[in-house]
Amino acid sequence: MEPISIAMIADFFHPDVGGVESHIYMLSANLIRMGHKVIVITHSRPPDRVGIRWLLPGLKVYYIPFVTIASGATLPNFFTFLPYLRTILIREHVHLIHAHASLSSLGHEGILHAHLMGVRTVFTDHSLFGFEDAASILTNKLLAGTLRNVDAVICVSHTGRENTVLRGELFEQSEDDPPRLVVSSNVYVIPNALVSKRFQPGLLQKSDTITIVVLSRLAYRKGIDLLVATAPRICAAFPNIRFLVGGDGPKLIDLLQMREKYLLQDRIELLGPIKHNDARSVLIKGSIFMNTSLTESFGIAILEAACAGLYVVSTRVGGVPEILPEDMISFADPNEDDVFRAVSEAISFVSAGKHDPIKAHERVKRFYDWAQVTERTERVYHTVMKSEQRDLWDRITRTMRLGRYAGPIYSIILLVDCLFFLFLEWWMPREDMDFVTHHWNHRRFASATQGL
Amino acid sequence: MSTKIPPWEKVLWKNQPHPDNYIPEGALESSLRKNSNFKPYTYWHLVHLSIAITQHLATIFIFLSVFVRLKDRSLDPRVLIFVSLGCFSVGYFVWEVLQYTQSSGGGSKHGSKRNERVKTLKSSILIFLALMSLSPVLRTLSAATSSDSIWALSACLFLLNILLADYGSSNSVAQVRPERLTSVLSMNAAISSSVVLASRLSNDLAVFALIQFSVQSFTLFPMLRRRLQVPMQALLTFALSISSLILAAPLSSTIAFLFLLVLLAITFLAPAVLVWAQKYKNEIRGPWDVAVPKVN
């Protein structure tokens, strides 16, 4: 498809480290490699990460001054982003906005404003949410309001798609009896990917001890309670097992206490916080990766471990059953006995030498490749660009159907947004803006730097 | 030559020929389970549970009527003191009977029971004397505040008491339930309210009578109420409601009518609304829920 200008909008971007951030960066880098122009819009991290920065390979990042409230997320706004967004989108001649993460209010706002400038919208959801607690009910309603008029939604797993469809009300009730749920045709599933070159398996070492690696944030959500309950049992049942635990968090205390209580200081090693660059060097020290998280939308940590040649043991939650074939992963229900059973199975499998790290690496390399994911994403962009944009009346009628109270509220927001936009068109006219002329040719850059 | 398209599988690692936005029919419905933990409410069960709230409200109404009479000096404080003492003795007797019948056939040691009785007696005398000595102080505590603020403050505090009170019941034997913060807060609110109201009274004896009555009704009486068996509960509710109405009626028939309305609404109307609202229950469970880890 012909090159277009894409703006990635998310609250979560570098210098913060995380799954969403690296996903946005890798996707942007690969899109640039395919010839498109990509910019990223995110909020600033004062005092020093402000303004406009360039990241390799030719990725322009706008750091907008917005105040964050908690863990990198800004307050839900509806109008304050419009002046910045309008200026940026017009200057950079953007064709399509790709917003990431349901908790990112910048992304939601971007989707709300984009239609005023004729820019298309795509939304990617990375996480799973519940329906019951007060925070979920509110964020789901906000999400439903935003996704009412988005052009395409991408989810990272099939479970994630079901969750997003139900939360954002992306379905219609069919006419027959009993009414079935017909999902809209613009919801796609494109998994995450990883750079397999960074997770090569280590050299094979013949030794009797089998090391189980656990690498995660030590929080309740990651199921550290299960780890604390099963580790002593495993150490008692299998004398040749060692544990290697990396990461930090509030549950570190529980692990330390368990280690003291069962006197396992020589069997369980706690490494503390591990940087993402060092993850591979920790992973190749082991042959089994254990993941006990209680909810996981995709599980990129599991993939990284499998790519580095480890056999995986994980709880059967969220999107985890979809990511690896049965012979590379053992599943367990989230209770102590079943986790013990699964780990024992894994240990006997690995001790018998039935798991080949090199072959596992090759397989994961083929399954989850950034080039493939980018190509699938490009197809979504292409479909979106070809389709017709909904006109304002259509948008208003769709928004009014949100609910008895939410519908009128969101419609009012939409109309005031249009008025605000008209005001900005008068106050900061387009003719007076500095347009960006962007002559970045990735192939020329590659040949210039490598072809010497 | 036709190539058969393999059926769609819910996996991400396979390169499937289906497009990315393909979702087979019924895939969404099969993942989610609606209202799986749903146990519908039945009307009479809810009425039975709301008796606790009615009793509490009736107690508050009785207290308010007593206060108004004390203020008008139509009730002699000494009569109130004797009535409270009588109620205290009756209540303590009932408590002892319940303790005896509900415990495992009187199995606990005689010595410890004696100790408990002595401790109870000591603490009641202590509180009695403490209140008696504090009542002059309490009378002038909020004397400077205007009456309107007092009524408003008292109303807010009683509202807080009603909202935060512990309406559960303890069916099992002599079990000491851990006090939640909210039930302690509600008791404090009730006592503060009665202290605040007491400042409107004219002599120390009246203040003492009121505070003693309030301490009894809001701290000791709820404990007794919780221990009572089921048929007694209904009888007690009835007795309390009727007495609150009888006490309020001579003072102002509008207020008595309002009391009646509130009591009926809480007991009969509110459960009906709750049962009606059940049809909106929409609990969705699916593979995206956070699992609850089960450790032995």
TrEMBL record, chain A:
Pfam families xrefs: Glycos_transf_1, PIGA
GO terms for cellular component: glycosylphosphatidylinositol-N-acetylglucosaminyltransferase (GPI-GnT) complex
Membrane-crossing segments per the record: 62-85, 405-424
Residue stretches making up the Glycosyl transferase family domain: 204-345
Gene Ontology MF terms: phosphatidylinositol N-acetylglucosaminyltransferase activity
Domain PIGA GPI anchor biosynthesis: 47-133
SUPFAM superfamilies associated with the record: UDP-Glycosyltransferase/glycogen phosphorylase
Biological processes per GO annotation: GPI anchor biosynthetic process
PANTHER family: N-ACETYLGLUCOSAMINYL-PHOSPHATIDYLINOSITOL BIOSYNTHETIC PROTEIN (PTHR45871), PHOSPHATIDYLINOSITOL N-ACETYLGLUCOSAMINYLTRANSFERASE SUBUNIT A (PTHR45871:SF1)
Function according to Swiss-Prot or TrEMBL: Catalytic subunit in the complex catalyzing the transfer of N-acetylglucosamine from UDP-N-acetylglucosamine to phosphatidylinositol, the first step of GPI biosynthesis.
Protein name: Glycosyltransferase family 4 protein
Highest classification ranks of the organism: Eukaryota, Fungi, Dikarya, Basidiomycota, Agaricomycotina
TrEMBL record, chain B:
Pfam families, per the entry: GPI2 (PF06432)
Compartments reported by the entry: Membrane
Keyword Phosphoprotein belongs to the record: no
Topology class, membrane: Multi-pass membrane protein
Transmembrane stretches, start-end: 43-67, 79-98, 119-138, 150-169, 230-249, 255-277
InterPro entries, per database record: Plno_GlcNAc_GPI2
GO BP terms in the entry: GPI anchor biosynthetic process
GO cellular component, one term: glycosylphosphatidylinositol-N-acetylglucosaminyltransferase (GPI-GnT) complex
GO MF, any single term: glycosyltransferase activity
Family indicated by similarity: Belongs to the PIGC family.
Name this protein carries in UniProt: Phosphatidylinositol N-acetylglucosaminyltransferase
Source organism of the structure: Lentinula detonsa
